[in-house]
Design a protein that fits this description.
This protein has 231 residues and is of the alpha+beta class. It is built from 6 helices and 6 strands. It has helices at 7-11, 13-16, 32-41, 72-76, 79-82, 161-206; strands at 55-66, 89-95, 102-111, 117-127, 138-150, 212-217.
């Protein structure tokens, strides 16, 4: 059991420490410095898109009545190469060997034009009914999530918190006001175009328009006051 920290250790010493330093524990061994300062030490704690976390930008779903269903999964992988991406990573695949039904989840990433982050296309392809008939016709769903993320510098960490915090607040405000807003808008348009290109190739592959299409997009801008991206 640790000794009980005094008032100075609890309230003053953490401000002399640098961001990312968590060395003060209470008498029960709980890291009180980490509990109090970890979130504040991360200048992007309110802006997860800059903190390396995937943020959904859009979701699009299309349905097709398709022949030759058993070949869709195998040939679909190469659609990514047609939109200047690599072969996707297969996250999940399930096939009913008796009925020919299948479901596949895959994802692929691409650097954003800003050079500061990535986009991710994550399709789920699934038959909604078993293939049937001479040409293995089936109802096929393409459900694609579009995500973006950035890995931005974490601010000043070489000064004590009492100096680093106001400087980091100014850095965050200036970055978002002068760079981040336009960067997200430009990169976001690029990412949406990739989603559009993907579905253009899906339509070329099937040689027809979808039976049904549904799109949901999230418009977001950095808001320094409350950290809300999705309005």
């Amino acid at each position: 059991m640790s000794d009980k920290p005094n008032w100075f250790t609890r309230n003053i010493l953490p401000w002399i420490h640098r961001p990312g330093t968590y060395s003060i524990e209470d008498e029960d061994g709980n890291n009180i410095e980490k509990d109090k300062f970890k979130e504040s030490d991360n200048i992007w704690s309110d802006f997860h898109i800059f903190d390396g976390q995937w943020i959904q930008l859009a979701n699009k779903v299309e349905w097709y009545k398709s022949p030759n269903v058993p070949t869709i999964y195998k040939e679909h992988k190469y659609i990514f190469e047609n939109i200047d991406m690599s072969l996707p990573y297969e996250e999940f695949y399930m096939e009913n060997m008796d009925s020919g039904e299948f479901e596949s989840q895959m994802s692929d990433t691409l650097a954003l034009p800003s050079g500061k982050g990535e986009l991710k296309l994550a399709p789920t392809i699934a038959t909604k009914a078993p293939p049937s008939g001479e040409n293995d016709f089936a109802f096929v769903e393409y459900n694609v999530d579009l995500h973006m993320k950035y890995n931005m510098p974490g601010g000043i960490t070489f000064l004590p918190r009492v100096l680093a915090y106001p400087l980091n607040r100014f850095f965050k405000w200036a970055f978002i006001h002068y760079i981040g807003d336009d960067m997200i808008e430009y990169d976001g348009e690029f990412a949406r175009n990739k989603l559009y290109e993907y579905f253009q190739y899906i339509r070329q592959y099937h040689g027809e328009e979808p039976m049904q299409s549904k799109t949901r997009e999230s418009e977001f801008k950095p808001a320094v006051e409350d950290g809300v991206f999705f309005q």
